[in-house]
Amino acid sequence: MRMSSLFGRTLREAPAEAETASHQLLLRAGLVRQVAAGVYSHLPLGQRVMRKIIDIIREEMDAIDGQQVIMPILNPAELWQESGRWYAVGPELIRFQDRAERDLVLAMTHEEVVTDLARREVHSYRQLPFMLYQIHTKIRDEPRPRGGLVRLREFIMKDGYSFHPDSADLDAYYPRMYRAYENIFRRCGLDVIPVEADPGMIGGTGSHEFIMLTETGEDTIIVCPNCHYAANRNIAVGKKPAAAGSQDDGAAAPSLVHTPNVKTIDDLARFFQLPHSHFLKTVMYEADGGLVAAVIRGDLDVNEAKLAKTTKATNLALAGDEKLRQAGVVPGFLSPVGMNGVRVVVDDSVSDGSYVAGANQPDYHLRNVRPSRDFAVAQSADIAVTQAGHLCARCDDPLKEAKGIELGHTFKLGTKYTEAMKATYLDARGQQKLILMGCYGIGVDRLMASIVEQRHDQRGIVWPVRVAPYHFYLCLLADDAESKAGCDRFYDQMKAAGLEALYDDRDATAGVKFNDADLIGLPWRVTYSRRSLAAGGVEVKARGEKASAIVPLDEAVPTFQRYLSDALANTTFQPA
RNA sequence: CGGGGCGUAGCGCAGCCUGGUUAGCGCGCGUGGUUUGGGACCACGAGGUCCCCAGUUCAAAUCUGGGCGCCCCGACCA
Fold first, then answer.
1. At what angle do helices A44-63 and A444-454 cross, to 10 degrees?
2. pLDDT confidence bin for A429, thresholds 50/70/90
3. In angstroms, rounded to a whole number, what is the distance separating the alpha carbons of residues A463 and A461?
4. Pairing state between β A472-476 and A501-504
5. Closest nucleotide to A90's CA, by C1' atom?
């Protein structure tokens, strides 16, 4: 490709709306352009990167017996009503009506359509197992798009769905997918770690996220440096720091203490001169319409995912002040004591000791509150956020926290959809059985952004060979007709040999070209100039390295081919 | 949805507080010329609904009200 006719120019300065490195560089290098919040066009360079990532994904999916399909984005509401997600999913699912006033949705994921597909085709155990995947558009009306391509409202996703006769077969297939995912990210040049995760609205019995660690990430994960336990913080378990109940007289009844304007645990700790762990923090949630009081030690925080699981709630959110007033409780002085019609869930770290809790009246707290004795405990379970410093449940080493971006997610769905949508088969004995499913997603745009996020320097992007839009940046630094013609011929030779080159034939100064070469970040920069010719050929420099070499013109093509095959060697497909 | 910020030429910004010429600067863009190994120089030039609507005023980019858009921080997800 000649730069002089490449659509999409490079920008010297980053547009003001871009903050993260990947967002700025994708815009500056001319890979993407914004259309609306969370909606982007891919320019030719960006499209080439996407295509290369997709090639890798397709290769890995095909290697584990995946069969590529395309399913529609436009879905009839009936399918989503059948699965129940028409009701369970919020406004991130775009719903509308067609001209005949039929309800439709824009698919944000494809469990419904693929399950429908499967139940129509599959009747016998002989047809199982199989895995279908597609690489296609997803639409999600995200509450807040973010970080350029990190969180989009419309994006390309690889979504795969496997179908199995029983859980043993699903369990046997799952690790193959897991390894394929590791391959994909490695071949894209990324360090990604798998962590245990919350299945969320997709549902199912277990899942893993593939996380790329970065400060700009929106996920927090908990890792054990010793035994390598790794989990998303919203499901991570750990041993909470031990804390004895308070020193108060265990037999004494709760007593009112005047605590004017003392609301937060920090304030209370100062006021009472007690450690945070001697307080009970009460947080009110609205769970599927009803109120739940989460009671937890003052040194811990409530984990909403765990609370949702514990209370089996589909929709769980902090209760608003209005709701609290209606329930007759006082924000800032919440207490499980004397609370009516509210389900009280207590974190399992709360022991039999006595605690300081709210009094449920303004400016008062209760001392010497004992769970069970002074308030009814509907459930006791782990509902706490696991924090850095808590001990690993497996090996007792202190846990650490890290930030990351979720690039892929694999789920063992089990029968969640096949049961709701009645996807069955006849087994060898003629018994009707539910099909089991797994599902597996990768956000392709996000993956591209993450590569830039992890692989860049002060000057620009540093593309891993496998996903670089082109391999060579051919830089012509002379404007005399003879040099131009020579470089044109050289470019034609590279093309004829199948080398991917971006030929900077523009009428621009060396500085401009070198800076654009660094910004776009192709693996090798090849300079053709009078100076290089005088030195014996063209000058080659790898992106991100200082050293350069002169390669004679007649050896250049085979030399470049060798560079390329060497660089690709450790990122090619390797059968397991 | 709550909190914060921004909206003036393709990009980055100034001007707004304290209303008053043809709305300005850098980069980029076009033409001609001189240049050519790390974002050159000279000359000429094109390019603006100052986000939108309403109001105040003799007069609005500037003041007031409403709306829209975009970014960032929190609850959700690939």
1. 110
2. very high
3. 6
4. parallel
5. B76
A536 sits within 7 Å of strand B by its CB:
no
pLDDT, average across residues A267-285: 85
Q: Which two three-digit tokens encode residue A53? A: 């990532």
Q: In chain A, pLDDT over 70 holds for what percent of residues?
A: 96
CA A108 to CA A496: how far, in whole Å? 43
A448: closest CA among A98, A99, A147, A130? A147
Angle separating helix axes A21-28 and A444-454, nearest 10 degrees: 100
Contact (CB, 8 A) for A388 and A399: yes
User: Contact at 8 Å (CB) between A387 and A237?
Assistant: no
**E strand spans, A460-574:** 460-461, 472-476, 501-504, 524-528, 538-542, 548-551
Measured to protein CB atoms, the chain B nucleotides within 7 Å are: 1-2, 6, 11-13, 26-28, 35-40, 69-78
Q: Model-level pTM?
A: 0.92
Are the CB atoms for A45 and A520 separated by under 8 Å? yes
How many C-beta neighbours within 10 Å does residue A545 have? 9
Can you give the distance from the CA of residue A205 to the C1' of nucleotide B77 in angstroms? 18
Q: Is the C-beta of residue A157 closer than 7 Å to nucleic acid chain B?
A: yes
Residue A35 CA and nucleotide B48 C1' are separated, in Å, by 22
Q: Which of A79-83, A523-527, A567-571 has the lowest mean pLDDT?
A: A567-571
CA distance A543 to A526: 10
Chain length of chain A? 576
Nucleotide nearest A39, from its CA to each C1': B70
Q: Strands, E, within A83-125: which ranges? A: 94-97, 103-106
Nearest nucleotide from residue A541 CA, by C1' atom: B37
- Gap between the Cα atoms of A176 and A61, Å rounded: 10
Nucleotide B2: closest residue by CA–C1': A320
CA-CA distance, A263 to A285, in Å (whole number)? Answer: 18
Distance of alpha carbon A384 from alpha carbon A548, whole angstroms? 55
3-state secondary structure of A316: strand
> CB < 7 Å to strand B — which of 65-104 in chain A?
92
What are A221's strand-pairing partners? A232, A402
Residue A512, phi then psi, degrees to nearest 5: -60, -45
Nearest Cα neighbor of A418 from A169, A209, A204, A172 is A204
Gyration radius (Cα) of chain A, Å: 29
Token representation of residue A315: 């929709």
Out of A90-104, A376-390, A461-475, A530-544, pick the least confident: A376-390
Where is A112: in which H helix or E strand?
helix A111-121
Amino acid at position A242, single letter:
A
What does the alpha-carbon distance between residue A368 and residue A249 come to, in Å, rounded to a whole number?
7
Tokens for A258, please give them.
């005047």
| Residue A453, CB, strand B, below 7 Å | no
